[in-house]
Amino acid sequence: MQLTGSVVFWRDDKGFGFVLCQQTQQKLFFHIRDQTGTSGRPQPGDQLHFNLAKDKRGRDIAAPWRLSSTKNAAPNTAQTTAIAVNIRHSPKPTDNSIHYANQLALLFRIAFLIAVLAALLFGRLPYVLPLLYLEASIFTYWLYKADKEAAIARHGNRLAEESLQLFALIGGWPGAYLAQRQLAHKRSKQSFRREFGFVILGNALLVSWLLSPWGEQFLARMALWAG
Questions:
Q1: What letter would DSSP give residue 169?
Q2: What is the pLDDT of residues 55-91, one digit of tens each?
Q3: Residue 24: helix, strand or coil by DSSP?
Q4: What gap in Å lies between CA 50 and CA 39, rounded to an integer?
Q5: What is the pLDDT of residues 184-198, one digit of tens each?
Q6: What percent of the chain has pLDDT above 70?
Q7: What b/e string do you get for 10-43 counting C-beta neighbours within 10 Å, with b at 16 or more?
Q8: What is the pLDDT of residue 227?
Q9: Kind and range of the H or E run holding 144
Q10: What is the rounded distance in angstroms from the CA atom of residue 23 to the CA atom of residue 81?
């Protein structure tokens, strides 16, 4: 069944927006790639004719869609206005936010390396290891959340999977596991899940070796200023 609705939000640089369905009063996502019929870019207030479809996660979207031949003004209703305002002012991940996450990730890696080296030189690595795990897990969870928000907004600029796996490897895998469960992110991609399993195994083997007699001997040799 073909539906109609009014565009309440449109981001032209990313090619996506939201349409308020007149028949169901649903706010539906739509993308420029699903456009059919006459060419042209939609604007807030334009009328769309569309079918109801599902995205990869089973959510309702407007696809395919086409612009109405007669572009009407946006309906002057409090509901449409409120939806448009909420969408326009709702926090959305941008290229800048992903760039910010990448910068923080770089700074965290540097700080983490300095902390590990200091703990090694002072012979305190086994004692600060739980704290390092906690900090890495919290930061890794935040990275997953930022990447999840970018994925929802269909951003082309995303966090590299290698970066997510690296933070899991250095001790953030509990946070990564929790994020995969709670945010339903990176959970369906089998190759990523397989690599994540190897990351957990490698991390567990490394920690087991550090706590073994051979690891203790290594840590003792590295401790230049042990008390």
A1: I
A2: 887 888 998 999 886 544 444 445 545 554 554 444 4
A3: coil
A4: 15
A5: 888 888 899 999 999
A6: 85
A7: bbeebebbbbbbeeeeebbbbbeebbeeeeeebe
A8: 56
A9: helix 125-152
A10: 17
147 touches 159 (CB < 8 A): yes
Q: How many of the other CB atoms lie within 10 Å of CB of 122?
A: 16
Which pair of structure tokens corresponds to residue 193?
């899940």
Torsional sign, CA 27, 31, 32, 36: negative
Strand, helix or coil at 48? strand
Mean pLDDT split into 10-residue runs, the chain, 227 residues: 89 86 90 82 90 87 83 47 49 61 88 90 88 94 89 74 91 94 87 94 92 89 75
* Predicted pLDDT of residue 139: 94
- CA distance linking residue 82 with residue 62, whole number of Å: 20
pTM of the complete model: 0.57
Residues 6+ apart with CB under 8 A from 90: none
Residue type, position 42, single letter = P
Angle at 111 between CA 206 and CA 204, to 5 degrees: 15
- Record the tokens describing residue 97, joined without a space: 């936010």
Residue with tokens 């300095």: 114
- Please give the structure tokens belonging to residue 80: 């449409």
Mean pLDDT for the chain overall: 83
Rounded Cα distance, 42 and 35, in Å? 10
Q: How far apart are CA 208 and CA 218, in angstroms?
A: 13
CB atoms under 10 Å from CB of 126, counted, come to 14
Helices (H), 44-94: 78-89
Q: What token pair was written down for 104? A: 């923080």
